[in-house]
Amino acid sequence: MELTEFNALQGIFPIRRLYQTKESRTFVFISICAASDSGGMEFKMSDYRWLKKYSCYDKDYEKNRGKYKHKFTPLSIEEVIRQEKRLGDKFPAELREFYIQIGFGILGVNNDDFLNLVMSPSDVVDFVLGEGMFENNYCRQDVNLQTKMVFFDTGDSVYLCLDLEKKDVEGKCPVVYSSGIEYVYMAESLEEFLRKMDESPNYYDDLW
């Protein structure tokens, strides 16, 4: 079977590629194992399929609330790209993949101690730009927005960041709490952070 390649995402290194068979006009998606950050570096994509069972729309969640340990809302890649245009850059690689594969939402829906919200792309961009509900948020003053990207709301105006300065060769950034006077290391990558949160939604409380 001969395949003709089409770039699935114009202007962006493809997460998947679209092919058309020569024998018929059937289109198929074939996944690839690499993507690119905004600097053109190729890296192995993170695999969040183990969280896919918790990604659903509100209607299904309300009907089957008991089966959900976490609750994420799916996102379209168009929405991710729309927010990247507002930002003027791509989201960090792991976060971008999480948005595309899973969405955004709450880790530990039965946790009464912390909110534990993986922020939506629009909220992340609003925080960076100081728009929407973050227009007058004093927490923005405590974060170096040139080197840190807030992505996680623990509740009570405490946010966790990806440390962009310490991105490794695979495009992974440590998860940290960072303010003007304090720096707390949480995990070496977003994937490690999510796995730790899956095991114990309050694990980071012991790191302060």
Low-confidence residue ranges: 1-33
The strand line-up of the biggest sheet is: 6-7-8-9-10-11-12
The assigned structural class equals alpha+beta
CATH architecture group name of the largest domain: 3-Layer(aba) Sandwich
Radius of gyration: 18 Å
Mean pLDDT: 83
Number of helices: 5
Domain tally: 2
- Class of the largest domain, according to the CATH hierarchy? Alpha Beta
Q: Output the CATH homologous superfamily of the largest domain.
A: SMI1/KNR4-like
Please count the beta strands (DSSP E, at least 2 residues each): 12
CATH topology of the largest domain: SMI1/KNR4-like
User: End-to-end span in angstroms?
Assistant: 57 Å
Helical amount:
10-25%
Helix and strand pattern: EEEEEHEHHEEHEEEEH
Shape assignment: globular
- In terms of DSSP E residues, the strand content is 25-35%
Sketch the major β-sheet: 7 strands, antiparallel
Explain what you see.
The protein has 208 residues and is an alpha+beta fold. The protein has 2 domains: 32 residues, no CATH class; 174 residues, 3-Layer(aba) Sandwich (SMI1/KNR4-like), CATH 3.40.1580. The strands form 3 sheets. Strands 6-7-8-9-10-11-12 form a 7-stranded antiparallel sheet, with helices on both faces. It has a 3-stranded antiparallel sheet with strand order 1-2-3, with no helix packed on it. Strand 1 and strand 2 form a beta hairpin. The relative contact order is 0.12. The N terminus is likely disordered.
